Amino acid sequence: MRAKGIDISHHNGKFIDPGNIDFIFTRTSNGTKEDREYKNNLPEVKKVDRRGVYHYYRTNHAEHPMEEQADLILRLITGVGMRMIATDYEISDYDDNVLDRTTAIELYGFLLYLIQERPDIRQLLYTGIYTWRDVLLPLQGVDTKYGVIDWGIVSVWIPRYAHTTDEYILKIYGIQVLPDYSVWQKSKTGVGKDYGVESTYVDLNVFNGTVQELDEWLGIEDKPVGDCHKTPCATLQSVLQATEAGFIEGDKIIQQNTEDIKTVNKKITINTYEIKSLEDGCKRNYEHIDKLNERLSVMTNISEAHIGLIEINSKNIDELEAKQKEDGKDIGFLQGQYEYHEVRTGQFNRRLTKLETKTIPETNHSHFWHKWEWFKKLTGYYNQRS
Fold it and tell me: How many domains is the chain built from?
């Protein structure tokens, strides 16, 4: 009889081991986020000896870096005795996954990393039948940066609900090579309460072999015979419990450190934004300085033009002052002539006064007035010049 099991996540709520399953997968994470029910359900999950985890792989490495996804899985399974790790490569309505050649190659590198870090754990790949046919299988044997792809490094876990024969699957899906059907998903509508979960339905899975063959596949040795409460078995159990407690405490410390790192990263991000704002401000200042320099250049040109005009005006002023000096000389000369004629006018006036008191012969009288008229004209000329 084939071994049967279930896979659960936070969608299934709380899990209580019902004692009727042979194996279980519990989800550790989605991308770089831990499943919120993983640790809550862990004590009951650990009651199932053939236990494993699965991780919902995210192809958007900008938001979910591949290394962080892998390291999160490895941290969460430390010290809890997991025997299987399954990577879930699919797409849903609730994420931005892209299933294509590029992300499939990165997925292969992701699987290699997990195998390298935990070679003691059975590695599986969960995907859909069409993804296997159209995306993954065509890459078999292709040389990439991670080496030549060989999907045989993992066991491929594919839903196989209605069709149980390999011949029918080959015919209906047109697949040339069947995946490794060590484990397949039999149903998505298992009755939740029958398998210890709160949800209405739960995924049911089948191992292609008996429980004993499953143990061999997982490398589980026979359990020791005898009363485990006796020494040295009891001592060994105490050591294991103490070690497990240490691992749990270590997980808490790691988780706290992770939160501290996230806080530091947020501060770094804030500082980066502030630096960018300062750089933008400096850039704007440089642009303003350039504009000011342009205006200064224009003002300098205007100032040089003004200086040229001032020099021209200074020359004009010098010329005007020189001309004024020449005119001053002429004025001084004319002033002297004016004063001279003033004296002469006074003399003529005095003579005229004397003549008026005397009788002048008719012949001399006309001659005198002729002289007098000429003198008045000459005096008027000098008055105009002065």
Answer: 1
Helix (H, G, I), strand (E, B) or coil at 128: coil
Q: Which two tokens stand for residue 320?
A: 């005007």
Q: How many CB atoms lie within 10 A of CB 209?
A: 16
Please report, as a single letter, which amino acid is at residue 106: E
**pTM for the full predicted model:** 0.58
From the number of C-beta atoms within 10 Å of its C-beta (0-12, 13-18, 19+), residue 325 rates as exposed
The CATH number covering residue 22 comes to 3.20.20.80
Residue 359 lies in a domain: no
d(CA 129, CA 241): 42
| Omega within 30 of 0 (cis) for the link into 43 | no
**Cβ–Cβ < 8 Å for 38, 77:** no
Residue 126 counted as domain residue: yes
Rounded Cα distance between 20 and 13, Å, is: 18
Query: Which one, of 75, 79, 95, 85, lies nearest residue 55 by Cα?
Result: 85
Whole-number Å distance between alpha carbons of 33 and 30: 5
Structural domain that includes position 10:
4-223
Tell me whether residue 134 is in a domain: yes
SS3 state at 169: helix
- Residue 269 in any domain: the answer is no
CB-based contact 16:42 (threshold 8 Å): no
* Alpha carbon distances (Å) from 170 to 126, 161, 164, 166, 385: 19, 15, 11, 6, 134
Query: Which DSSP string corresponds to 232-290?
Result: THHHHHHHHHHHHHHHHHHHHHHHHHHHHHHHHHHHHHHHHHHHHHHHHHHHHHHHHHH
The answer for residues whose C-beta is within 8 angstroms of residue 98's C-beta and 6 or more apart is: 59, 60, 91
Residue ranges with strand state E in 130-172: 143-144, 147-148, 155-159
* Segment 250-309, tens digit of pLDDT: 777 787 787 778 877 777 877 777 787 788 888 888 888 888 888 888 888 887 887 888
The pLDDT tens digits of the residues spanning 119-136 come to: 999 999 999 988 999 999
Please name the helix (run of DSSP H) or strand (run of DSSP E) that holds residue 213, with its range, or none. Answer: helix 211-218
